[in-house]
Design a protein that fits this description.
Elements lengths: L3 H11 L3 H24 L4 H26 L7 E4 L1 H4 L9 E6 L6 H16 L4 E6 L1 H10 L1 H7 L3 E5 L1 H12 L4 H22 L17 H15 L4 H6 L5 H25 L11 H7 L10 H30 L13 E3 L2 E3 L12 H14 L2 E2 L1 H12 L8 H13 L6 H8 L2 H5 L3 H4 L11
Parallel strand pairs: 2-3, 6-7
Antiparallel strand pairs: 1-2, 1-4, 5-6
Helix pairs in contact: 1-2, 1-3, 2-3, 6-7, 9-10, 10-14, 12-13, 12-14, 13-14, 14-18, 15-17
């Protein structure tokens, strides 16, 4: 079978002239990337597209390393490891390539020269490498002093080379940090997120959002996995449900959000031909059409795209913020207490003792009382109680709602002091706001693609 791996191997084996080899590699990469783009534009999922792009790089790097290993013993001293975005197989058209090159503790000058032999062709091919050349001891030290390096290592993949060296690296990455170390790492990641959001804007519904760094966008999904990785050994979105951090239905929502945001980022890179993650006003219609949106009646394709975008980032923002707030609460010296005797704060989140039937079924005022108590206590709603609430809201008949009672409670929440409005955002996300004020559904995530609004 004529796979990319086979074709790359043939190039390295048959073409000895460096200039001619580079030309052949560039043509082969361009051809394979063209196939990936064509498949994406024909409807292939964004997750599959970014994985195929990562697999293409895998094939190139392995073939290059194999060629060197066939030529010299020094190449057997190094190991290639994909980390960060490359490690989780998320390579968009203009993504950086996060590559770790492992070397022995005291590499010889010949081994260092071999590393350079690996890197120069990659630069000549136009790749933007976020690379590091380290021994395992240096990796450990870097992970201890820099939390970004530590979390990048959590999503590593072995590409090839010295397997014993890689095993040593993977062994230390798999070590569970001590409780004190966990506390430090979590605090640094929370501070990192706060700083990022302060620079990008506090609202998820930005008019010209950054698809990677914006609130509720891809970096928030990554932060959620990283934080859970530090505390629970999580390595992927799917692990979040296994660890009980999100409910299965929330995991499905996060999957859809990840697919949407990755698709938009791929399309933006293709449209601009640049490594740009800011979805500007001019690019929005092009990106919308590139991922299949069309005008429907008086609704423009770009406005339908933006509506879905806002819904997805709202979900990611809500889930990530809730988890981050929980970590903050669990690290407070003064523990919160529930202002309502019907509810209890357990491990930094508000829970409703349930023994038997769902107490929230047919009782929307109780749902509002729960969230008001959480607001007053300064905590989120616990996972178990959140499940009961979601179930109750999902089967609530709007015709059976006591809107007078509900509206009074909602206004109490709305008028309360809140630094971030997380209580109302959560009530909106689970559908309570739409039940109390039905007309609100008409403007939910609605946008007008108009330069005046920018």
């Amino acid at each position: 079978m004529d796979t990319p791996s086979t074709r790359f191997r043939q190039v390295f084996h048959r073409i000895q002239n460096p200039s001619e080899r580079l030309t052949a590699l560039r043509a082969l990469l361009e051809e394979e990337r063209g196939r990936i783009r064509t498949a994406f534009e024909a409807g292939e999922s964004a997750v599959a597209s970014t994985a195929r792009a990562a697999d293409l790089l895998d094939a190139l790097l392995r073939s290059q390393l194999e060629a060197r290993m066939n030529a010299t013993r020094n190449a057997w001293e190094i190991a290639l490891v994909a980390v960060g975005g490359y490690g989780r197989r998320e390579i968009c058209p203009r993504s950086d390539v996060d590559l770790l090159i492992l070397v022995p503790r005291k590499p010889s000058s010949e081994v260092i020269a071999e590393v350079e032999q690996m890197l120069y062709p990659l630069w000549d091919l136009g790749m933007v490498l976020g690379h590091a050349v380290r021994s395992v001891a240096e990796c450990r030290k870097a992970a201890e002093t820099d939390v970004e390096t530590y979390t990048a290592f959590l999503q590593e993949r072995f590409l090839g080379g010295n397997f014993e060296l890689y095993q040593e690296f993977a062994g230390f990455v798999a070590e569970r940090p001590s409780a004190r170390r966990q506390k430090y790492l979590v605090q640094r990641k929370l501070e990192e997120r706060e700083k990022r959001l302060a620079s990008q804007g506090e609202l998820a519904q930005m008019l010209e959002p950054n698809l990677k760094e914006g609130r509720g966008c891809l970096r928030d999904l990554h932060s959620l996995v990283w934080l859970a990785g530090i505390l629970h050994g999580v390595r992927s979105l799917e692990d979040l449900a296994r660890a009980g951090i999100v409910a299965p239905e929330e995991l499905e929502e996060l999957r859809h959000a990840n697919e949407f945001l990755l698709g938009a980022r791929i399309a933006l890179h293709n449209v601009t031909g640049q490594k740009s993650d800011r979805l500007g006003f001019e690019e929005q219609p092009k990106v919308a059409r590139a991922i299949g949106y069309k005008d429907v009646g008086t609704a423009k394709a770009v406005e339908l795209f933006q509506k879905d975008f806002y819904r997805h980032v709202r979900t990611v923002d809500s889930v990530t913020t809730r988890y981050c707030d929980l970590q903050e609460e669990q690290r407070r010296k003064v523990r919160a207490r529930s202002p309502d005797a019907r509810f209890t704060v357990v491990d930094g989140a508000l829970e409703a003792p349930v023994d038997g039937a769902n107490p929230f079924l047919g009782d929307l005022p109780l749902v509002l009382d729960l969230h008001r108590a959480a607001q007053l206590a300064g905590v989120g709603v616990g996972a178990r109680t959140r499940w009961f609430v979601r179930q109750a809201v999902s089967v609530t008949d709007p015709a059976e709602i006591d809107r007078v009672a509900c509206l009074a409670r909602f206004l109490e929440i709305a008028k309360a002091s809140s630094s971030r409005g997380t209580t109302i955002r959560e009530l909106h996300r689970i559908g309570v706001l739409g039940l109390i004020v039905p007309d609100f559904r008409w403007i939910d995530c609605h946008s007008q693609h108009d330069i005046y609004h920018v």
